[in-house]
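Two quick folds needed for the group meeting slides. Do the first one here.
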Amino acid sequence: MKAIVTPLIAMALLAAPGSLLAQSAHNDPYVAGPANQSRLAQQVRHELLMLPYYSIFDDLAFRINGSMVTLLGSVTRPTLKSDAENVVKRIEGVTQVDNQIEVLPLSPQDNRIRLAVYRAIYGDPQIGDRYGHRALPSIHIIVKNGNVTLEGVVANQGDKNLINIRANGVPGVFKVTNNLVVEG
């Protein structure tokens, strides 16, 4: 069976529930497998999005291979890693969970960078008005040891470039990896 790789952010933005795009990497949209895997993917996605401490500073993704779910991504809280595993284990049809979620190191400097990048991106009216007014905004900011990774989905290449410029302009950022996917 084909493995399904899911970015939670991309699915949150797609207009039609159950719409699926092409697969290329762990954080890119995924290809639909058999109908039972598509249903399972929707259930896993829903459970992960409902986690109470899941924020824009975390990135959760998953891969499904048969009845095994592999959890991927990075989180700021160790409890979010274990909570994600626990909710996925309880889904009907899941027999095994491989939790590969990375817990980001505690760092006051990284916390400062997270907030500064958040303000730089979502404080810009061109970006904040379009992407910031959702329960879970579509652009996720992952900071590890001063390095910023941007995950999620944007409407066009111009937005992707503007967000990259804003993140690169934050003092203290060593490097920005822009993994944002342009919709469509």
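Then this one, please, same format:
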Amino acid sequence: MTASLGGAAVGRRIGIGLMYGLWKPRVLGAWRVPAAGPVILAVNHSHNIDGPMLMGTAPRPVHFLIKKEAFVGPLGPFLEGIGQLKVDRSSADRTAITEALGVLERGGVLGIFPEGTRGEGDFASLRAGLAYFAVRSGAPIVPVAVLGSAERRGRLVRGLPPLRSRVDVVFGDAFEAGDGSGRRTRKALDEATVRIQQRLGAHLADAKRLTGR
């Protein structure tokens, strides 16, 4: 099933309504996201609302790669309907890879949690998938820091940050992951992963200084 740009646009409208209705997003640097053409948003991941928060605050509709375990019951058709991509993290999921590259080939926005799963949200451990998509497609990467989503004080609902609390979403400068050679060897991808990790880590540190988080 090809991810629908129209579906992602619907998802963005839903995200805007939910995120701004339940919390107080403060969005910084959204102008750094290219207005057109393929782009990859690389997002730190410390809370379940990080994906929906970005869908509701990014200036363009986003297709996220989401673990297949989230596609259960009625949530599965809903996520597919709003243009999200199911990925099996236990193996090289060729279908998900093809669909993600298709989003970029059509000039869309691909959202990736490069840490692979929720953790400290500090970009300390990156999977090679982000480097592969960036080098293979040539799409620039925009680092995104979501800060405050894991706030534990004052929660009314377990597992969610306090309702109406502020969540900062900080977009960084777009950059190219490859070295310009177009190489896709394991060595080239490993080198790209190191470059990406350095850029993402630096952006997160800048975002924390900027927001006082």
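Slide caption for protein two: The longest strand covers residues 141-147.
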